[in-house]
Design brief:
It is built from 13 helices and twelve strands. The protein is α/β, with parallel strands linked by helices.
């Protein structure tokens, strides 16, 4: 009888498809939702549809049972392709879908797949595509991660007092192999700096500030690793140029040279991470690395790094946060006036904890 009851329970478990967000940092924060879903129903099956770049992240989230390549670039509409993909998913018999992006197009695949329960926040006139279209109370859910996690619960339920933090898995053997591949040694204190920001220059701390930070810490015996994508190579080169020549041997530029998997493994052994408000900042926090988060046009009140050991730095000038990609006044004071001495102090405080 007990075995039969267990079979009934498993048969009744939800088969959930999550339409994932389009940015690295958002995907990391989406793990709060995945954790809540598994806490609510440990036997549910969780599949995440996302762009191919997200697969290394999803593979490090134990809550995710399977992933599907969305086959779309950021912002691509492709209505016919979304209809075909949705119909192709019907044999998977998904019982529920949670759509994290607020766009109309992101809700099309679950709609065409005929998934009976389709949940998401309202946006872009997509009410007809959702069976549970929710109205967002920004005061109730001020953080993006809270908004994601809330979709794991009934719309009329009380929000949880706290949400689980993202936590990415790392394999020690893989880490050692990556260190060998790049000729790096895990000794002393290691500072990772992440000078890029996909969103735009209004998020990017000046290269000369990163260089000043690096010069100070290298003089104190630290290594400095610069992490980022190919798009961050120019700013990384600018930082290297401004670092004192005698310090170059202690500073390694890894921008554009690592896969996302490799960058995650390397970051996992660093002592402190100093990062713009970017995807790598959220990866660092999910690896439980001490994080110094630098905020220019954006605000830590919406997308803070979710970790215990963190210092958030921002100026209090009257025009921020503006959430613009470029500074509308051209001065970028929110970043230029964020002095290197503040970041140096924050690194010292985190390293001494």
């Amino acid at each position: 009888m007990e075995l039969e009851q267990q079979r009934i329970k498993m048969a009744a478990s939800d088969n959930i498809l999550v339409i994932g967000p389009s940015w690295i940092g958002d995907m990391v924060m989406a793990q709060t939702l995945f954790k809540c879903l598994k806490q609510n129903e440990s036997q549910c099956t969780l599949t995440v549809m996302a762009s191919n770049w997200a697969m290394p992240l999803l593979a490090r989230m134990p809550e995710v049972d399977a992933s599907i390549d969305a086959q779309f670039g950021h912002g691509e509409l492709k209505l016919g392709a979304r209809r075909r993909i949705g119909r192709s998913l019907k044999p998977s018999n998904f019982t529920k879908s949670i759509i994290l992006p607020n766009s109309f197009k992101s809700a099309l695949i679950p709609f065409h797949a005929g998934i009976p329960s389709r949940i998401g926040w309202g946006g872009e006139w997509r009410y007809p595509l959702l069976t549970d279209c929710r109205r967002l109370d920004r005061r109730k859910f001020p953080l993006m991660a809270q908004r994601f996690a809330a979709l794991a619960f009934a719309s009329n339920s009380q929000p949880p007092e706290s949400i689980p933090y993202p936590r990415l898995q790392v394999d020690a053997i893989d880490v050692k192999e990556v260190l060998v591949d790049f000729g790096l040694e895990e000794h002393g204190k290691i500072l990772a700096i992440c000078p890029g920001a996909e969103y735009g220059e209004a998020k990017q701390w000046p290269s000369e500030h990163f260089a000043a930070l690096s010069n100070t810490l290298i003089a104190e015996g630290w290594q400095v690793w610069i992490l980022g994508s190919t798009k961050d190579a120019l700013v990384a080169e600018a930082i290297i140029t401004e670092i004192n020549t005698e310090n170059h041997e202690f500073c390694v530029n890894l921008t554009g040279k690592t896969t996302l998997d490799q960058a995650i493994d390397l970051m996992s052994v660093t002592s402190v991470v100093v990062s713009n408000d970017s995807g790598l900042m959220h990866i660092a926090s999910a690896l439980r690395r001490p994080v110094v988060g630098l905020f220019g046009s954006t605000s830590p009140r919406f997308t803070p790094p979710l970790t215990e050991r963190v210092k958030l730095l921002a100026t209090d000038i009257e025009c921020r946060p503006c959430f613009k990609r470029t500074c509308r006044y051209g001065h970028r004071r929110c970043l230029t006036e964020l002095e290197p001495s503040l970041a140096i102090m924050a690194v010292h405080q985190l390293a001494d904890e």
